[in-house]
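Researcher: Please predict.
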Amino acid sequence: MTESAVTTTSILPILSLWRREVVRFARQRSRVIGALGTPVVFWVLIGSGLRNSFKGSSDSNVNYLEYAFPGTIALIVLFTAIFSMISVIEDRREGFLQAVLVAPVGRSAIVMGKVLGCSTLAIVQAAVFLLLAPLIGVSLSVSSVLAMVGVLVVVSVGLSALGLLIAWPMDSTQGFHAVMNLVLMPMWLLSGAFFPAAGASRWMGLVMAVNPLTYGVSALRHALYTGTSGAEASPSWGVSIGVSIAFALVMISLSVAVVTKRQ
């Protein structure tokens, strides 16, 4: 009886917060355009300019549009995490967050509701962009699509939890955008999404090696190309997905700790 009550108490707030994030995002078209349109424009413009001058390796025929495709998916997830977690600051300003905090629900349920809502939005938008893969000569199979969805779940949960961790202590959207420009965008640029680690300087290669998003992008590349030339320069599949899962778990744990501590 008690176990059932605890389960119900946890699930209902999670579903409510998840639904609120999805509905809010769907009603704000500017956020949809910003989170999905900006990475697509970036991919098309930069990718088209460099497509004939890039080689993934000495014996590879991968052009830049194809190489940057998994990285652009990661950027879509990152942008969604950024825009969605701004709602934490808005909810605090409107008083909604205070009402949620004083409700008889666990703080972990608040974290999971926000993170799952953001992750759902990220996965849907990334899946829409994934439909463009055949336009650059990447064949999608059932196995590759399922692998991509699985990796997207892990990566989106990790980045969403990171977004929550950054947004929770902040009181202004300006401060959040400043942190985004200072931390999150360099995190993406140094993830192997923009250029391979093999061509980077030694210090930059070390930074890329300790960047958790490097392994998320690598996992996306492995899932998309299923072991073909597009993933040959990446960390191994096992290392990539293992680090990505560990990063997601650590970010969720830190988010729960921060939400529980800050009143």
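Model: The longest helix spans residues 64-94.
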